[in-house]
Amino acid sequence: MTSYPAAPAPGGGGQAGPPVCPRHPDRVSYVTCQRCSRPTCPECQRPAAVGVHCVDCVREANRSVRPTRTVLGGRVSASDRPVVTMTIIGICVALFLASYVLPIMPFFRLDTTQVADEPWRMITSAFLHNGWLHLLLNMYALWIVGPFLENMLGRWRYVALYLVSALGGSVAVLLLTSGAYAVAGASGAVFGFFGAIAVVLRRTGRDARQILIVIAINVVFGFVVAGISWQAHLGGLVVGTALGALFAYLPKERRSVGAVLGVAGMTVLLLGASAALLV
């Protein structure tokens, strides 16, 4: 609770003056906070079930309230907006538009002839796209599955799932292709989300058949349609499923530490595999 000096009596005498707001001593207020009984001006008043509370009591009460969490530990926010999902989509759209005026694609896509000297390509390629249709399909898929996962897992695990799944897709490209090969797109990360959401749906007792059908259809497309990197899809799917299972089935008391160790371990494994492939 923030403390404020008492308002001085007018004229310096012993008789108390009219009640004033502790935060704004120049404002007379005859309304008192229902919790601390101090005067509170209209700017500092907050509606309560009975009467009003001052901003300091509201802040103190909020500190003692434990945040509401989903069954998998994600924090439930008041706005419930998928901030991370919208940010990822915004970055992808911004980079796609920038590619019309700046030659960013050759420097940030995954190029198997350049990745040994420029390893950041294994992540930056997950934010680039080769055309409007490519961008729209991936962003639509991200918007369909992303908000649910962001809400269930919480923001940091959601970001980790996207980035590590993208890394898994890139490592699979290095492992399963030969010669010069260049790819770009969020598909590896999106397939990671597909795998993770299937596990989360099963873990929470929901029907996962629809997402399994979507995964099967997209896997087939990757093999029969030219220009699609099935390798990135497969790598992202495997890594995303593994991380999704980790996040979904960790015991509650080990959820935070286990998630950190799992993400770190998977990242080290993928980086080690890519280093071995590039030697």
What attributes characterize this protein structure?
elongated; Rhomboid-like fold; 10 helices; 2 domains; mainly alpha; 279 residues
Question: Briefly, what is this?
Answer:
Belongs to the peptidase S54 family. It is a multi-pass membrane protein. 56% of the residues lie in helices and 4% in strands.
SSE topology:
Blueprint: E1 45-47, E2 52-54, H1 55-64, H2 83-98, H3 105-108, E3 110-111, H4 121-124, H5 132-153, H6 155-176, E4 182-183, H7 187-203, H8 209-224, H9 230-249, H10 255-278
Helix pairs in contact: 2-5, 5-6, 5-7, 6-7, 6-9, 6-10, 7-8, 7-9, 8-9, 9-10
Superfamily (CATH H level) name of the largest domain: Rhomboid-like
- The total number of structural domains is 2
Please outline the major beta sheet: 2 strands, antiparallel
**N→C terminal distance:** 60 Å
Order of helices and strands: EEHHHEHHHEHHHH
Residue runs with pLDDT of under 50 for 5 or more positions:
5-14
**So, CATH architecture of the largest domain?**
Up-down Bundle
Number of helices: 10
From the spread of the alpha carbons, the general shape counts as elongated
At the fold tier of CATH, the topology name of the largest domain is: Rhomboid-like fold
Share in helix:
55-70%
Sheet with the most strands: spatial strand order: 1-2
Strand content: under 5%
CATH top level of the largest domain? Mainly Alpha
Query: pLDDT average, as an integer?
Result: 88
Q: Indicate the radius of gyration in whole angstroms.
A: 27 Å
> How many beta strands in the DSSP annotation?
4
The structure class reads mainly alpha
